User: Fold these one by one.
Assistant:
Number 1:
Amino acid sequence: MEGDRAAHLRGQRPSRQSRRSTFLGWVVATCLLTLHAVAAPAADQIKVERRNEVLALTWQDAEDTLQGVITPAEPHPGEPLRLTLSVGNIQGPPFEGGVTVAFSQEGVPGQVTRALKRDAVGWSTEFVPPETGAWDVDVRFLTSRPKALHAKFTVSEPGVPLIVWRTLLGLVGILVLVGVLRALTQREVPVEVPVEPPAGSPAEPSTEAPVDPPADR
C-alpha cells in the first residue's frame, strides 16, 4: 500500500509543478503587457519633439501619416505661433481634403477652432495663446475613415534673451578691466623719510670753504 501511495504522489508532483510554472508565466506575461501599454503612446497621440527652433509633429497608422511643425519651439503668451501640417496616404492618391484644428488649454476643450484648406506648404494657421500652461491641439481629417489626433505643447513666460546676458557679461568684464588699470596707474609711490642722526653723535664737518676776515687798512 505504501509503495502504491508513493508512486501515486510521484505521479502528481509534475502536474503541480506544471501548474505553478504556468501561473508564474501568466503573471510575467501580464506584467509585461501592462508595462508596454503604459509606455506606448495612445494610437491617436501625435509625437512632439523639439528640433532646434521648432516642435516637430509626427504620427502614423496603417493608412495615413501626419507630419508638422510648431514655430517657435518655445511659445509665449501674447505672441503668435504657427502650425503647419502635412497629411498623406500610405496607399492611394494624395490627400487633398480639409483639416480642422482646435487649440485649447488642458481641460478646456475647443477654445479656438480653425477649418484649414491646403495651401502651397500644406495646412497651416497662426494662433496667439493668451496664457501660459499646458495646451492641446486637436487635428481632425477624413480619409478612408475619420481621424481625430491630439498633440500637447507648453506655453511659457519669455526668459531673458541670450544677447542680454552676453551684453551684461561684456559690461562686467569692461568694468573689471577699467578698475584694474586704474589701480595700477594710481598706485602710490612710497616716500623716503630722512633718517635723523642719533643724539650726541659728532656733527659732520662742514663742506663750505672758510671765509677770510677783512684786512685792516
Note: Residues 2-39 form the longest helix (38 residues).
Number 2:
Amino acid sequence: MKHLLLLLAILGLADSASAQANLIHAISLGTRLGVDAAVAGNRKIRDASSDRYVTTATYHGDSYYQKRTPASKLKGPGGPQIAYQESVLQQCQAALLADSTRALGTAETWAMLQSSRELIVRDRPAWAVDAYADEAAFYQAETVRRQRRAAAGQR
C-alpha cells in the first residue's frame, strides 16, 4: 500500500499528460505480469495431470487413447491405483491383440476399473483419467461386438 501511495505521489508531481501515460503503462505492465503468472499456473496444473503420457492406439481402423505412466511418476497419493488401472488395461490390450474372439473383460472388470478411476480422482485430483475411461470403453465395446458376433455364428 505504501508503494502505491508513493507511486501516486510521484505521478502527481509530474505533469498531467506524462503522469497519465506512466499510470497507464504501470497498469498494463501489472496486468501483463498477472496474466503471465496465471498462464504459468495453468501450465503447471496441465503438467500435473500428465496428459503427456497419452498416446493413440488403433485396432482394425478404430482409434482410442491409451495412457501409460512411467513407474517413477507413480509415487505419492493415487500411485497404486494408477498402476492397477494401467495394468488391467494393459492385460485387456494383450487379450485384444492375442485373440479376435475372446472377451476382453467382464462386467466386474469394467466396474473395478470405474471404481479405480474414482479413487484416482479422489486421491490425485489433478490426474487426468479421461484416457483410461476412453480405453476401457473401447475394450468394453469390443467385447460386446465379439459376443454379438459369436452369438450370430451359433445360430
Note: The first helix runs from residue 2 to 13.
Number 3:
Amino acid sequence: MSAYEKRINRRSDYVSLLSRMAQLLAENGDYHQAGILRDLAARIANGQSLSVLDTNDVWGGAGSVVDCSFLHGANPPDEAIANQHRFGELVVQLVDLLEQDGVATDVMRSRRKSYLLWKAQRQQKTAGT
C-alpha cells in the first residue's frame, strides 16, 4: 500500500469515527454537536488538515462535543449508560488516531483519560453489585 493510499484510508477512519459519534449525539438530541462533527468529517474527507479537529467546539467545556452526556437523572436507563460507553470508546479511538498522527493535544489526551477513568469506575461499580 502506497503512502497516498494509507493517508486516504486514515482519512476514512477519521470520517467513520466522527460520523458514528455524530449519529449517537443526534439520537440523544444533541443536534448542534452532531452537526459540528458532521461538518468536521466532511472537511477531513475533502482533504483539510487534521488541525481542524483541534477546536473548542469539540474539546472545550460546557456545550462542547465531548461535554455531552447521555446520562440524565439519578438512575439513567441501561441504554443511556451503553450509549455513554460507546461514545466514550469513540472519543478514545479518535484521540488514539490523533496521537498516532502526532497531532493530539494535552486537552485531547485529558479527555481520553477522563473517559478511561469513567469506564474503570463503571466496571468497578458493576463488579461490586
Note: The chain is about 70% helix and 0% strand.
